[in-house]
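Whiteboard transcription, Tuesday session. T.W. wrote the C-alpha cells on the left side:
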C-alpha cells in the first residue's frame, strides 16, 4: 500500500490512479460517518460522492499541517452534513433509514433479524439523546473505525479529551439504554 503523503502528492499532480486509491482507502469510512449522522442511505451515498468531488476539485490547495489527510476529508464531510441539515430544516425522516447498511446478514433467520432491528432502534434513539460532541466521537470511533489520534485531529481536541468524551458517551449510552 502506497504511503498517504505520496498518494496525496501524486493526486495533486492530477494522477488518476492516486485519486482512485485515495477514494478506495477512505470511501467506506466517510460513508459510514455520514450515514450515522444523517440516517438516510441514499443521502449518505450522494453526500459521500460530493465529498470526493470536492476533494478532487480542491486537492491542489491541500497543505500538510501535522494532521492526517483524512482529517481534511472529514472536515469536508462535516461541512456537507451541516449544509444538508440546514437544507433539510424540519422535515422528519425515520432515523433508521439506511442504518441496515451497518449490519451484515446475521444468518439466524427472521427472529434474530427482528431482535437486531429492535436493538438498532434502541441504539439509534439513544445516540440521538447524546450531545453533538458525543455523537461525533461515537460516529468517528465506531462507525468510521478511526483511531483516537485521527479523531483528535478531526475534532480539534487532545487525545485525552477524545478518550474522556468517548468514555462519557459510552456511559451515557449505557444509562439511556438501561432506562428504556
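and on the right, the sequence the group agreed on:
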Amino acid at each position: 500500500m502506497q504511503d498517504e503523503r505520496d498518494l496525496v502528492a501524486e493526486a495533486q499532480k492530477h494522477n488518476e490512479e492516486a485519486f482512485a486509491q485515495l477514494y478506495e482507502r477512505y470511501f467506506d469510512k466517510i460513508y459510514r460517518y455520514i450515514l450515522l449522522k444523517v440516517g438516510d442511505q441514499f443521502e449518505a451515498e450522494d453526500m459521500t460522492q460530493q465529498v470526493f468531488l470536492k476533494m478532487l476539485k480542491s486537492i491542489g490547495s491541500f497543505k500538510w499541517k501535522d494532521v492526517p489527510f483524512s482529517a481534511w476529508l472529514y472536515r469536508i464531510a462535516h461541512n456537507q452534513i451541516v449544509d444538508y441539515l440546514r437544507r433539510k430544516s424540519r422535515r422528519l425522516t425515520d432515523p433508521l433509514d439506511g442504518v441496515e447498511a451497518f449490519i451484515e446478514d446475521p444468518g439466524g433467520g427472521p427472529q434474530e433479524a427482528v431482535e437486531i432491528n429492535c436493538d438498532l432502534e434502541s441504539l439509534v434513539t439513544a445516540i440521538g439523546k447524546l450531545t453533538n460532541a458525543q455523537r461525533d466521537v461515537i460516529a468517528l470511533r465506531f462507525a468510521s473505525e478511526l483511531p483516537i489520534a485521527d479523531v483528535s485531529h478531526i475534532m480539534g481536541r487532545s487525545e485525552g479529551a477524545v478518550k474522556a468524551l468517548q468514555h462519557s458517551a459510552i456511559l451515557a449510552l449505557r444509562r439511556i439504554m438501561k432506562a428504556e
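Someone added at the bottom: The chain has a mean pLDDT of 80.
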